[in-house]
Amino acid sequence: xxxxxxxxxxxxxxWPPRVRRAHGRELETxxxxxxxxxxxxxxxxxxxxxxLSGMADALISAPRAHRQEWRTPPAHRKGRPWAERASDVLRxxxxxxxxxxxxxxxxxxxxxxxxVCLGGNTVIFSIVRSVLLKPLxxxxxxxxxxxxxxxxxxxxxxxxxxxxxxxxxxxxxRRRDVRSFDEVMLYRRGSVTLDAPGGADRLNVLRATPSFYxxxxxxxxxxxxxxxxxxxxxxxAKVMLSYAFWRRRYGGDASLVGRDIRLxxxxxxxxxxxxxxxxxxxxxxxxxxxxxFTADQQSDASRHxxxxxxxARLKTGASVD
Length: 321
Fold this sequence. Notes:
alpha+beta, 6-stranded mixed barrel, elongated
């Protein structure tokens, strides 16, 4: 069975069962004949127009067939042959099919409207799914919470996972004092310049505390993830590469682990290559760097520098209430 015939039969499933049983074969044959005629007259473009028109007509005519079924009184339906009861619907369908090539402008308008509507619905659903329905690619995602400092009276009453709304002192306080948190982490998106013989590149980076990788369950393709020791001042010139960037820039050279690359004029030791497919919020992160904080950043003087994002994982049995 051809794909066209199968798709048309699937569309006919939208029609009333009795119409489908009595006249489905006839409609299908008429549709295929129209396709053959369009191919002979106008070649591939004509065949494509006829195919789209026929499929659209089968879809659009289904509600009309159901309305005709509902408007016919039950007693009247029982007393009339089905072929006679369905004649109006079949006449409309035949007229529409024979009008494909004659009413080209109308057909193209209908098809364009249908394509735009279907495309718009697909885009909207994709956005809703990615933002609201699709679970985070994280173990125990239902226990992950966003922790923010909000100031409604000053016009800052909402935050998101890509908007900074926490400070460094808050991170240390909550990590130490909030007992319902199993893990707390801080991160911020940024950019650096990669210095290389082949030319400098501006790259997207994510700077995060080492707890970030434990919270997300990050795995490496080669090497290791960033550890607490890598976040100590003076020992923080470490970097992990995303799998896609490593393949694109370095051709999958595994010997890169343990070597240095220069970022913003400083050498950084490559400690690992993240596993393929690992991502968080953004798909374009090239490098992952550790966060280290000075004494001034950890002091109360930085309490209101809310330019970091904080997320946490609740302990088993804990809730945001």
